[in-house]
Structure formats: C-alpha cells, structure tokens
Design brief:
- By secondary structure, the chain is an all-alpha fold.
- It has a domain at 75-215.
- The chain is 70% helix and 0% strand.
- The chain has nine helices and no strands.
- The chain is elongated and about 65 Å long.
C-alpha cells in the first residue's frame, strides 16, 4: 500500500450480516458486474447500478458510499474467482517452460503476469490503475503465480529457479540476483499498468522486460 495514497478509501460502509442484506448486496455487486460485462463502464454510476439491481438507491447507499466501493467489492470477488480458474493453466504453462530453460521460464512467467494484469484492466481499467497501490494488486498477482508453483512467495520461486540453473550462471549472490530479477519484472509490468497499459499486450514490450531480467544475471 502506498504511504502517500490520497484518494478516498473505496470501501463498503458496512458488511451485510443477515440473509436479506446479503441478498441485497449480492444483487448490487452482480448488477455492477453485468454493467461492466456489457461494456458500459463509462456510464457506471450508483444510480445505474441500483437501477440494474432493481433496488432503491437509498438501499445501495446503506452499504456503499460510492461506485468505487462497489467496484472494490467486484474486484475482490473477481480476483478470488480468477485465482481458482487461472491456477491450473498457468501452473502447467510455467512449469513446462521451466523444464526447458531459465530463459523460457522467465519469458512465460512474464507473459502470465501480463495476462493477469490485462484481465483486471479489462474489468475496469481506470479503477485498476487508480487503486493499484492501495489494494496492492501486484501482491495478488504475485500470489497467483507463487501459489500455482507451490512456493510461498514469487521471489522465493525466482530464487529456486535460479538455483536450479545455477550451473549455467556465474552468480556470486543468488539472493541478490533473485531480488533483481523479481523486481525488474514486477517494476516494469507495474509501471506499464499505471502509465502504458497497452504495452502489456505487445510482444515487443514483453520481450524487452525479459531481456532486462536476463541482463541482470548475465
């Protein structure tokens, strides 16, 4: 979370406790998801969400102070759902490339992380960029990758990969090398999310990220 974050915190006013209130909140969140799915993100508002949900605007405001708070809940739920859906395929892809070479493994993990960022940018790009640091979305992406690869953290996975290929490398300090590789990849992808999100779907950019990571250990 960024220390100098100055945007209003987009969190619900309260959480539903009873069955009826949970149904209400679910209807509001699902309405927001449906609006986004139809490509109406630019028209998103609390009034529009309430209309699609079939609830009174006052009922929406009991739980959400603004549309950003609804979006925060949408993202939280979507990320949990994506985690289960994305796990197996990303695991197979990265592990298959890890067996080929260090270069292939890093190239694949860069592509997987870029694809995850694109998924959430597609959901609502402005929200993802504006609240990227506050919600620490990068840690969520890292968690997806490290859990899929049966490692406690993304940086530990990078370290284990470098150790596996240590016989091909001339590294005095594996810990430092892993730190550099992990942060070069995360730093460049994160900067792209905030400033140039279209880079994430460009092969040339991903190749440059890959080259920068390899250069740190060459």
């Amino acid at each position: 979370m960024a220390a100098d974050y100055d945007k209003p915190i987009p969190l619900p006013r309260k959480l539903p406790k009873q069955g009826r209130s949970k149904v209400l909140v679910d209807a509001i969140v699902e309405a927001c998801e449906n609006i986004l799915a139809k490509g109406d993100a630019a028209q998103l508002s609390t009034n529009y969400i309430a209309e699609v949900a079939g609830v009174n605007i006052g009922s929406l405001y009991q739980y959400f102070p603004n549309k950003e708070a609804v979006l925060a809940t949408v993202f939280t739920r979507k990320m949990a759902a994506e985690r289960a859906e994305f796990a197996d395929q990303s695991n197979r892809r990265i592990l298959a490339q890890s067996a080929l070479s260090l270069s292939a493994a890093l190239a694949e993990v860069i592509r997987v992380k870029a694809e995850l960022h694109q998924r959430f940018l597609t959901l609502h790009g402005d929200f993802y960029r504006d609240y990227y640091d506050f919600f620490d979305f990068e840690s969520t992406i890292d968690e997806y990758v490290s859990t899929d690869l049966q490692q406690p953290t993304w940086s530990v996975w990078v370290k284990s990969l470098l150790k596996h290929y240590q016989h091909e490398l001339r590294l005095d300090d594996i810990d430092r090398a892993a730190f550099l590789v992990a942060n070069i990849i995360d730093g460049l992808l994160s900067a792209s999310v905030r400033e140039e999100p279209h880079f994430l779907c460009e092969d040339d950019f991903l190749i440059q990220v890959h080259a920068a990571a390899l250069n740190a250990i060459s």
